[in-house]
Write a structure and sequence with these properties.
four-stranded mixed sheet; about 350 residues; mainly alpha
Length: about 350
């Protein structure tokens, strides 16, 4: 029996609470890694190439954001990447894909160990993404929304030549309400549907989600990207939900008014990003489905993972170039994915089975 299905540490009852709507705990470790950071004891850690390890499961949309941004900015050589497997039990994510079941840099079997090194008996969820201080083995932060913004603004001296500006100052005022609505209504909205504890809570969550998706469909019917003429943090945040929509959220989370493939603007937009280096080449559809269908015992007690849908359509032409703009503006695309960070063959149409 896998760790994700052990009775002793089952996730049953962890996600759905009868009669209640789903409310995400958004209290994270708010420490930051800053240019000029000088006091870890007060939450200000220094930017230091090679010091930190990003722990980010490919299955998780919040973690997937950090993998995308790290790759787009070219931070692979200064912030290493550890990838837990797609399933976990009630304790924490595990490094079951690594040799010996241990992260090869941190030497731990469970991400929980890095949290407990910093905060013994840490009372909240052991979440990904998390950044770990390699010398001490202690977690630094799991504040996923801030992590990617800091990659863009605090690590600039380490960015690759041609890296995009994902958080341009002149667009931040416009980006803020767009990103807020995407988080509350879409990124978290699908979970609000899937983990609803009553019919009424589900109905309200469903209506909120589709109101937002209709707004996005209209917005993206006249522009290539969410804000401005190039990819930004806003696009990264929406993409990781869209890429999971048909394989998981449509059925597993009952977000089933329409498939993504039935929404022309959103579907074209999602394919455009998927085919942009740095986005689709980080996506592991097999791990995504395994995570949701196996771990969420409250929603799928049989833990059977569906074989569909066919995902080769992610490579179909999208025609979004007609709106103008370009993904990297005056910059350049990232180079090929490092050999040791490639998605497994057969887990993504960009990496067909051998």
């Amino acid at each position: 029996m896998s760790q994700a299905t052990s009775t002793e540490h089952s996730t049953k009852g962890a996600y759905v609470h009868t009669g209640e709507e789903f409310n995400r705990d958004t209290n994270y470790i708010e420490d930051r890694i800053l240019r000029g950071g000088d006091n870890p004891q007060e939450g200000r850690w220094p930017v230091e190439p090679g010091r930190y390890r990003l722990i980010a499961a490919r299955a998780c949309p919040w973690a997937n954001r950090t993998i995308i941004v790290r790759r787009l900015l070219g931070l692979e050589d200064v912030i290493s990447l550890g990838t837990p497997g797609p399933t976990h039990d009630a304790r924490s994510w595990t490094f079951d894909l690594d040799e010996g079941g241990k992260d090869p840099v941190l030497g731990i079997e469970r991400l929980q160990q890095a949290y407990f090194t910093r905060f013994p008996n840490y009372p909240r969820g052991i979440t990904v993404p998390a950044i770990v201080d390699i010398p001490s083995g202690a977690v630094v932060t799991n504040d996923y929304a801030q992590i990617t913004l800091d990659f863009s603004t605090e690590w600039t001296e380490c960015h690759r030549d041609g890296a995009p500006d994902l958080y341009p100052e002149h667009l931040r005022e416009e980006m803020a309400p767009v990103m807020k609505r995407i988080f509350t209504e879409v990124n978290n909205g699908v979970y609000r549907c899937g983990f609803a504890g009553s019919q009424d809570a589900y109905n309200q969550a469903y209506d909120r989600l589709w109101t937002a998706l209709d707004w996005l469909e209209e917005r993206l019917s006249t522009r290539r990207y969410l804000v401005g003429e190039t990819i930004t943090e806003a696009d990264v945040r929406l993409f990781t939900t869209l890429v999971r929509f048909d394989p998981v959220y449509h059925g597993h989370f009952k977000c089933n008014r329409s498939k993504l493939t039935e929404m022309p603007a959103l579907w074209g937009y999602a394919r455009d990003l998927f085919q942009t280096p740095g986005f689709g080449d980080t996506v592991d559809f097999v791990q995504i489905k395994q995570h949701y269908y196996i771990v969420h015992e409250d929603v799928n007690p049989t833990q059977i993972v569906p074989q569909g849908p066919d995902l080769t359509n992610w490579l179909l032409p999208h025609g979004r170039e007609s709106f103008g703009g370009s993904p990297f503006g005056n910059g350049t695309a990232p180079g090929p994915v490092r050999d040791d960070e490639q998605v497994a063959a057969g887990h993504n149409p960009l990496y067909p089975a051998n």
